Fold each of these.
Amino acid sequence: MVRVLVLDNPFPPHEGLRGRLTAEPGLTVVGQAATGAEAISMSTTLGPDVVLVGSRFPGVDALEVIRRIARPPVPRPLASAHRPAPEEAPPPRVLALAPAADREYALGTLRAGAVALLTDGATPDELVAAVREVAAGNTVLSPDVPRAIVEAVRRKSAVRYDEQLTRLQGLTRRERDVLVAIASGHSNAEIADRLSIAPSTVKTHVGRVMNKIEARTRVQAVTFAYESGLLRAAACG
């Protein structure tokens, strides 16, 4: 059973995100939060697998809430000679909805740690499918998202550009090819076929790329590819 925590402000209630998920087999909505404080507290106490952040969740709080849920500052208990340190439970995986016109917010959710992003025009079936994919450990991006990232990157200041360029220059030519393929939405199997290399080699390259660009998820790798100019350069080349 996939446990989902919903962050949403439903008006009217029957049209809210919770209502779309409640009747779905294999999914259970463990709670709904309408404020940032509630969201952070409930994500800790209820132990959801997926946190769904609605586009109507208060915008002032949303990015910081995503950051604190996806990357909680939980101190790890110290081990002793008689008691090893317990395993840390992984944080919930965050699926965010963003208004199609708010490109800066869409980009912000990915930077904050969301592993999946849909526009708020997603159908109920698309939403349910995305929740299941996220719970299975996969990344989901709405088809509109890459364009949203491009537009946001064009308008943002280039404060981080030098840092991104330095990381980009640390990639080999093959690793750049792999990153372009990741940012274009290809799976490891598709990358192997596209580059005529073994799937095991792709997995090795992906691991090295993620480490070098300091990305924890494929969504963050997509963002890096646009921010560093790699994907646009590859398209022009």
Amino acid sequence: MNKINLREVVNFSLKAEGNNKVTLLGVGPMSKTLIKASLLLAKRKDFPIMFIASRNQVDSKELGGGYVCNWDQKGFHEAIKEVAKDIDFDGLYYLCRDHGGPWQRDNERKAHLLEDEAMKLGKQSYLEDLINGFDLLHIDPTKDPYVVGKVIDLDVVLNRTIELIEYIENERKARGINEIGYEVGTEETNGGLTSTETYENFIKKLTEELTKKNLPLPVFIVGQTGTLTRLTENVGNYSIDNAKRLADVAKKYTVGLKEHNGDYLNEQILLVHPASGVTATNVAPEYGTVETQSYLKLIEVEEDLFNQGLISDKSNLKTVLRTKAAESERWRKWMVGDKINISVVEVLKDEKLMDLITEISGHYTFNNDEVKKEITTLYNNLNSVGIDGEKFVITKIQESLDRYVQCFNLEGLTSKLMN
């Protein structure tokens, strides 16, 4: 199948009416299992899918690599290509950089790198994205360690955004690489709302400056609709009215409204996304949590089988998964209240808190050698009595994915795009 440029997909969405209205889905690639589950569902339901990788998840080895399977951009590209080949998937999928740019790796931000160095590393990461076939690059220079507790000045965001796009475009043309898409954002995702005035002002100024330099306009512009993911729920206050107003503004400039933090939204809210004009939504931690919960359920099954004498051995996955999740400390990002600063020692003594932390940050451990070993042991034990553990995990992930596919009216979209 010839690959359709993302801009064409977005243009289709912007022009669609009635039953053809859709919201595209961006999936955070938390594991190779999730990628397999996503592509299997996309094959069965005939829809295009975007894999959105943050710099912490996938990045150049020189910059520290990523926590997902230790993938750099080349490894990420090849892994998805391999899975697609294995399952005979010939539909549409897109490699996308989520939150690319300066200070977007945790270690760069904690080190308080100076702007010139942070921009240099951001460009280095983008260049690897470009070389390795990424279709969409999110230009996000808003995570600045020197600006705490307030929104970065609009002109600073604009200048950095234009500098980064200009750099990438120069490199793209020099290498003879086909057109790619850009996504830009104006602020952090904090659960608040982007005003239509601020949103349009940003788009207008950005359009003017990009046009002056003969640079491409973005495919997506991020707008805050009120979503915010914490723990295992969406704690924001979603505003359909605000989403529609932002979408209408974006459409005036032939770009799509991109929503982040779409995890755990209920079906009532998801169903109105296409109608309100939200062009695409990113979902990530929800799928990592679902995969972790699936392993925990299989561990319970394994325990029952062992107690009944139906298997002679059992894995140590529960202990290893819980311990590694707590020690990762990545759960702090998703916590609320005074639990954010609790010590790992205290966490390990609190069974209830350990359960929660494992659910929200278990996916950060999937590439750990001990965790991988215990998952293999778990699967082997279950397989010995006719239980396909991997199939169960994939099915549970697909159930979570399918909520969005159904509510976003995505089924059959690939065929519509090709006709």
Amino acid sequence: MPENEGQPGPPHHPHDKGYKQLLSNKRVFLELIKTFVREEWVETIDADNLILVNKSYVLQDFSEKEADVVYRLKTRGKNVIFYVLLELQSTVDYLIPFRLLLYMVEIWREIYNNTLQNERESKNFRLPPIIPAVLYNGAGSWTAALSFKEMLESYRDFSGHLLDFRYLLFDVNRYSEEELIRAANLIAGVFLLDQKMQPAELAGRLQKLAGVLKRLTPDEFRHFTTWLKNVVKPRVPGDFSAKIDGILNESNPLEVERMIYNLELTLEEMQQQALLKGKMEGKLEGKLEGKLEGKLEGKLEGKLEGKLEVAKNLLLLNVDIDTIIKATGLSPEEINTLRKQLEN
């Protein structure tokens, strides 16, 4: 399969960009597989044999839904393709197994087209196995089918004759805090920070990861801060976005506590500013409401005084009450009260 062909477009979501950059580092990708996949073949994978395929296989129909990461594992003269779909949305897409099939077929089709005719028509020609995977960070549980056959009508009746595969699922919010801290590596730390939480909790979680962050290489630490920028900055106002940029750009593994302390101060300042803004908006809203109420009351009082004056003049002219009611809109009681005041 040719690398660097058909350069992928920019990921649609900020989270996609962060994860795609992170998992494009093969050691981080290997951490993902070895930390969360409990299968024997995982132990045989060597980072030196992993090759990033710099091409996206996401089809145009789904280009705004996700990004993907593709690796080729070359071992003992054989190829294995790892295809990871970054499904970073708040809702589950139940078409995932079908979409994965389309992407897998696209990879196989390209391999077929780029293999010499005499080789692909030989008895020994084999397509490489593809291990599909989905990385999901939605708050809700993943409820899509985990195997392709579950999308097929009456699949139990014909199970021996149907195409099927089961994809790996990395469900960020389903891992426990203890499990992620115990893993003590970059990808587990990223998952912990990506789990659903309030902005105020970020500094506390970073404190729990301080030991892990100190042990990162400068290159790994750069990947971590790049991911943090892509995830945190879109959630904060522009002024604070620039501050967070500055803090992360100046950080390194030897000064993790300082980085966390500065981020904590910035987030606290942001919260205080938001609180102050809310109070000011509340006061302003109260003042505006008071002014509007005052104006309305004044207008109503002015209209009533004008009607009373008209009714008074009509009474002095001995106009009958029914006519005065029609002319002013006052009630009979109000007009009788006014007449008694004139008689006295």
